Amino acid sequence: MKARAPRRGPSAFCGTELAICSHLRYVLAVLSRRRHTPQRSSRGFTLVELLAVVVITAILSILAVVGFSRHMQSARGTETIAVIQAIRSAEESYMAENKIYLNVSITKGVNWYPQLVPSSKRAAFNSPKHPDYASWQQLAAPVNGTVMFNYLVNAGQPGTSISGLLQTSEKPPFPSAQAGDWYLIQAIGDVDEDNSFSRYATTKMSGEVYIEGEGE
Question: In a 3-state reduction of DSSP, which class is residue 32?
């Protein structure tokens, strides 16, 4: 699986949209032929023309819904990257003051924050009942309001491995043993509410974010 699927631009169309546009061109062609028919009645629209208007309206509505859905998925992915960068900045600030990165997700087991069990519902980033809440408060990442994704933040000393901490189904291109003090930031979320999760991961030593199942 690739780390990041290439983003499609606004003009890119999937197979369904191409089929819709093909039907739209056909309907417009029919209307064009009827407009040049000499025997066309001047009393009003024919049944065929009314049906064509209905079809065009339906096609435009479908395209609008598809476009809106893509926009929402893109916005949620952008939100996740912003939160990851906020956590990264907070870890660097903590290192500057304490000469060590903060191991935030310290409770035994995999305890995503702010929701222990990831879901498709948004949740307040400030979660006092979470077992790792005190550590997150200590990190003081500048994140407010609600978030779609949930996060894990681990840290360690030079030479220690991150392999056992990764929650991705495939191994990201990160060194197993980190050369210096390190942190590992991970995120998980269900963008389109189909119980299929997108997973993000990045480390101190990697400037890029590994993404698995983007938009799922």
Answer: helix
Give this prediction's pTM.
0.66
Q: DSSP class of residue 129?
A: T
Backbone angles phi, psi at 11, to 5 degrees: -90, 0
DSSP secondary structure letters along 65-76: HHHHHHHHHHHH
- 216 residues of the chain, pLDDT tens digit each: 444 444 444 444 455 565 565 656 665 665 566 555 555 555 566 877 788 888 888 888 777 766 655 555 555 558 899 999 999 999 999 999 999 999 999 987 789 999 999 888 899 999 999 999 999 999 999 999 999 899 999 999 998 888 889 999 888 888 777 788 999 999 999 877 777 899 999 999 887 899 998 655
Residue 161 zone, left/alpha/beta (φ > 0; ψ -120 to 50; rest): beta
Asked if residues 151 and 83 have their Cβ atoms less than 8 Å apart, the reply is yes
